[in-house]
């Protein structure tokens, strides 16, 4: 079993920088900005042939109102799940009352606490750490997480204290099975996740209820849901199991119009959201029923469609709306988003749970459709039937010939069609083929993408070439001519 370490401390002391250093990733957003991390984030690392699980937490400010209260709950949950606690302090700022308060709280847990005096680069390490010994912890390490100073010797010492069979008793069992839960960048972490898990990204504008919906599905306050736009800043990956089916829920930051994205932190949040979309199998687009459909909704939907992801629309905050208002919203969806006919629409209330249970069927339908495997013979028969019912148009007096089709990939579902003059297939006929494949295969919640390839003509460029026998006759004739 892997030891579980929770990183705890005041805002802006370097917890996320240390998290990235110990996980050898860039999963946690890092900036010189207090309160950047809000939800707890999980990641794995390995040093000295020992694996471990890390939990990054939001900074404890000592405030008990507003969003700080929710952040404190997330930190307390991380402390309860951990085998040991890493208390991070700022060696440049020196000891503060906030550090003393957090140290006393951690001491009361009865769990091992390792004190890490961070940011010692450019200062005398002994002098920077001297006043922190007054906190009463035996294990004090002087490090510079940003410059990888003191990290290796620190982890070597800490990992010696933990036996492989005496760790992680407090985490949910599904997070401890192999392959272990990873967080963050799809290119690395998600490659090690259970291949059977359905990855679901929750996206939408700020304050539409994404985090509330994730918490409703999980049945716990896993991510911070607060009535303030921009509460979620990073993409949070949460493993979940229901009816023996594994899921990875991905809560993302709300995406605003580019003109309103000013902070560098928010720009990174947008990048994380786009990465989460690419990593997912199914995207749930959460929209606020109390707000009209904006250009930003259409833009975000366009990004999802460009990635070819399966899509489910969740229109949230549906409770309490009058009948005529509901009809107006449904008309808006059909009028402004006609290109989403393939996507299922569900009207829900994440806060009260109304309609949330129906999302599972839509998710499974979309996942099945985007991951479907279709034999070449069947795709070719569908293509032949479509061509018989509606012939391709004539181009310069010549008929476009579509010969056969095969599957080019899943998520998105890609059909590759071979034939002659395929580069001249008009958009209208492409839409006809897409709709025909979609209808015949009974796909739900996913697009069909087409790729056309023109077959090479084996006789092209050979019309003026002579056969070997003709070449022999020509050579004999030339010799005869020269003699004459």
- General form: flat
Question: What class would the helix/strand composition place it in?
Answer: alpha/beta
**Helix content estimate:** 25-40%
Order of helices and strands: EHEEHEHEHEHEHEEHEHEHEHHEEEEHEH
CATH topology of the largest domain: Rossmann fold
Summarize the structure.
The chain has 484 residues and is of the alpha/beta class.
Describe the secondary-structure layout.
Layout: E1 4-9, H1 15-23, E2 41-47, E3 50-56, H2 67-81, E4 84-90, H3 97-107, E5 113-118, H4 125-130, E6 140-142, H5 151-159, E7 198-203, H6 210-218, E8 236-242, E9 245-251, H7 264-279, E10 282-288, H8 295-307, E11 310-316, H9 323-336, E12 344-347, H10 359-370, H11 376-389, E13 394-395, E14 398-399, E15 401-409, E16 413-420, H12 427-440, E17 448-454, H13 468-483
Parallel strand pairs: 1-3, 1-4, 4-5, 5-6, 7-9, 7-10, 10-11, 11-12, 16-17
Antiparallel strand pairs: 2-3, 8-9, 13-14, 15-16
Helix pairs in contact: 11-12
Descriptive key words:
single chain, 484 residues, alpha/beta, GMP Synthetase, Chain A, domain 3, 3 domains, six-stranded mixed beta sheet, flat
Explain what this protein looks like in three dimensions:
With 484 residues, this protein is α/β, with parallel strands linked by helices. It has three domains: 4-175, P-loop containing nucleotide triphosphate hydrolases (Rossmann fold); 190-369, P-loop containing nucleotide triphosphate hydrolases (Rossmann fold, 3-Layer(aba) Sandwich), CATH 3.40.50.300; 372-484, GMP Synthetase, Chain A, domain 3, CATH 3.30.300.20. 33% of the residues lie in helices and 21% in strands. The chain has 13 helices and 17 strands. It has helices at residues 15-23, 67-81, 97-107, 125-130, 151-159, 210-218, 264-279, 295-307, 323-336, 359-370, 376-389, 427-440, 468-483; strands spanning 4-9, 41-47, 50-56, 84-90, 113-118, 140-142, 198-203, 236-242, 245-251, 282-288, 310-316, 344-347, 394-395, 398-399, 401-409, 413-420, 448-454. The strands form four sheets. Strands 2-3-1-4-5-6 form a six-stranded mixed beta sheet, with helices on both faces. It has a six-stranded mixed beta sheet with strand order 8-9-7-10-11-12, with helices on both faces. Strands 15-16-17 form a three-stranded mixed beta sheet. Helix 11 packs across helix 12. The longest helix has 16 residues, at 264-279. Mean pLDDT is 77; it is low at 28-38, 64-68, 168-192, 223-233 and 257-268.
């Amino acid at each position: 079993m892997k030891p579980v370490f929770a990183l705890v401390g005041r805002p802006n002391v370097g917890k996320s920088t240390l998290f990235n250093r110990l996980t050898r990733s860039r999963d946690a957003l890092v900036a010189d900005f207090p309160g950047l991390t809000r939800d707890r984030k999980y990641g794995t690392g390995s040093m000295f042939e020992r694996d471990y699980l890390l939990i990054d937490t939001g900074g404890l400010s000592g405030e008990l109102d507003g969003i700080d209260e929710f952040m404190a709950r997330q930190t307390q949950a991380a402390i309860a799940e951990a085998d040991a606690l890493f208390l991070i302090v700022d060696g440049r700022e020196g000891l503060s009352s906030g550090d003393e308060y957090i140290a006393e709280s951690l001491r009361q847990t009865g769990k091992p606490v390792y004190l890490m005096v961070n940011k010692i680069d450019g200062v005398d390490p002994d002098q920077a750490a001297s006043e922190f010994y007054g906190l009463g912890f035996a294990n004090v390490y002087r490090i510079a997480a940003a410059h990888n100073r003191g990290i290796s010797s620190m982890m070597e010492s800490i990992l010696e204290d933990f036996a492989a069979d005496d760790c992680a008793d407090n985490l949910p069992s599904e997070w401890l099975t192999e392959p272990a839960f990873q967080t963050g960048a799809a290119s690395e972490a998600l490659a090690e996740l259970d291949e059977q898990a359905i990855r679901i990204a929750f996206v939408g504008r700020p304050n539409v209820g994404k985090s509330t919906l994730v918490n409703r599905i999980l049945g716990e306050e896993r991510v911070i849901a607060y009535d303030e736009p921009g509460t979620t800043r990073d993409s949070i990956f949460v493993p979940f199991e229901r009816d023996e089916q594994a899921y990875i829920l991905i809560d993302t930051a709300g995406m605003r119009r580019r003109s309103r994205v000013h902070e560098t932190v928010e720009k990174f949040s947008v990048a994380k959201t786009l990465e989460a979309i690419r990593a997912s199998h199914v995207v749930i687009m959460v929209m606020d029923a109390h707000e009209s459909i904006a250009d930003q909704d259409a833009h975000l939907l366009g990004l999802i469609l460009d990635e070819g992801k399966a899509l489910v629309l969740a229109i949230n905050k549906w409770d309490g709306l009058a009948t005529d208002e509901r009809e107006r919203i449904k008309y808006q969806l059909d009028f402004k988003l006609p290109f989403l006919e393939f996507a299922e629409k569900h009207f829900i209330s994440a806060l009260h749970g109304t309609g949330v249970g129906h999302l599972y069927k839509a998710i499974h339908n979309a996942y099945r459709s985007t991951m479907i495997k279709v034999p070449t013979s069947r795709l070719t028969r569908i293509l032949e039937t479509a061509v018989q019912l509606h012939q391709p148009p004539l181009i310069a007096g010549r008929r476009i010939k579509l010969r056969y089709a095969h599957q080019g990939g899943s998520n998105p579902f890609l059909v590759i069609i071979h034939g002659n003059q395929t580069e001249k297939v008009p958009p209208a006929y492409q839409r006809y083929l897409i709709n025909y494949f979609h209808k015949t295969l009974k796909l739900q919640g996913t697009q069909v993408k087409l790729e056309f390839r023109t077959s090479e003509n084996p006789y092209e460029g050979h019309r003026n070439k002579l056969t070997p026998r003709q070449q022999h006759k020509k050579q004999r004739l030339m010799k005869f001519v020269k003699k004459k």
